[in-house]
Sequence to fold (492 residues):
Amino acid sequence: MTCYRSLLAVPVLIMSMFGASAHAFDISANANKWPGAQALIFTGVPGTSRSGTPWSVALQRAAGEWTEKTRFNFDVSPLYRDPCAGTGPGSLPELLNGIDFRNTVCGNAFNASTLAVTVFFTEFNILGTADIVEADIIFNNNLNFDVYDGPQRPGSNATREYDFQRIALHELGHVLGLGHDDSQPAIMNSTIGNLSRLQADDINGADTLYAGIENCDYRPARFGWVFGSLESGDCRVQQLLSGGSDNSFVDVYTLDLTEELFVTVDLITDGQLDGVLFVGNASLGALRVDEDSAGNCNPRLTGTLPAGRHTILVNTYSSNVAPPCGVTNTGNYRMSVVLQSGDLLTLSGQQSFQGGTANARFFGGVTRNGGQSYTNRVSSIQAFDVRGRIEIDPQHQGQPGFLAVALITPQGEILVKNTAGELVAYQPDVQLVPVSERKVLDAVEDLDILTQFRAAEAGISEIDVDFYIGYGVDSNPGELYFNGQPINVLIE
Fold:
C-alpha cells in the first residue's frame, strides 16, 4: 500500500538537492509492474470540481500525461468502478482498477494528512518478480479538492483546496509501480508541492521500470546456432528487471517472427554451466521456461509462437526454477533455434547491391518430405531439399533478367550457384553480380537450391549455413535484389 501525504502548514515544495543524481527515482525492490507495460483504469468518478472540471476529465488528463511522456500506457475507460468492491486476488476483472472518493480506505480510517491511497495486488511470475494485477485509488473525501494549476492554495486541512489532478498524477505513478522519491523535484515526492506536471525524474523512473530488454545489451537470435558465454560482467536478471533479488547472469536475445511458427530452442552447455532457457514476449511476459528437458542438464523449449517479437533469455540457475543441475553459474553455451512450418517461411527484410528497393517478396525453407512440411534442421544422413521462391516486383515481371543463389559458410566464405548448377567461390572482382540462371522473369520464380542432398555423402556431419536468393533485370545489370533474412540449413 502506498499513499501520498501532505504537510499541514503553508504550501511546501520538497526540493532536497543533497546527493541528487540523474536516476534518483525509487523503484520497488520487488520490481512490481504491469505485464505488457499497460493497464486499464476506470475513470468515471461522478461529480465536478468547484472550478467546473469533472473529476473524470482530470483523471483522464493525468493518465494521458503518463501515456504521452513515458513507455507506459494507460488504457482509459469512462466507466465507473468501485475501488472497494471485489478487490484482491480472485475478484472479477470488470471490478478492477477503480477510483473514487471515500471517507475511509475501504473501511480503514484515513490518516489525517493522507490525501489519497493506492492499493495494489500482485502475483509472482516465473522471473521471481511480481506482476501487478490490480490497483485501486481512494481519495480522502474528508478533505477539499479542486482542479487547478500553479502553486497550492494555502490553508489548514479544514479549508485548504488540494489540486485533484496533480494528486491523481502522483497516485497513477504508484499504480504503474513507482515509489516515493524526495531527492529531486518530482511528482513522486512523498509530500505534495507546487509541481503539477511530470518531471524528468518521474519520466526516467517509469521508462527504466518498463525498459524491458533495453536495460541490458541484447542481440538478435537467428535460426541456426548462436554461440555465447555467461561470465562476469554480463547483464544480471536484477538489472534486466529493474529490481528483484535474482542476481544471476543473463544473455538476452530477440527473435522476430514473420508468422506463427512452431519453434524449438535448445541450449547445450560446456558441462560446467547450469543453464536455464526462458522464452517470453517483447515485454518479458513469460511464455515458457526450462532447465533440463533435453537431458544432461540441457534445456529445451518447444511451442507455437505467434508472429512478432519474442525474447529469449539464457540464464543461470535461479531458485525460482528448479534444484541446480550444473556445476557453476558461468560458462560457454551453444543455442540452436529451429522452426517447423507447413509452408515456405516468409523471409523478412530486403537488400540490394546498389541500395535500390523492389516490391518483391522472398520465401524459403528446407524440406525432408517433398514439401509437406518445412524446417531448418536435418541430420547428416537425411536427404533434403532447399527451396526458395521469389514474388517478382510487378514492374520487373516480363523483363529479361536473372536469378541468383548464394551460400555463406560459418567462416564467412561465400559460394554462389553458377549457370551449370555448381556452387563455386564468389569472386566479386570478376563477377560483380552472381548469376545462376538467365531468363524472362515470371511473376513467381521457384528456385531448387539443393535437391535430395545428403550431407554425409559430402563428408559433412555438422554445419550451419545460410542461403540467399535474388534476382535482377538486364536493364540494370549491376543491381541485385535479395532476401535480408537467410534460408538457414542446420545439419546436426
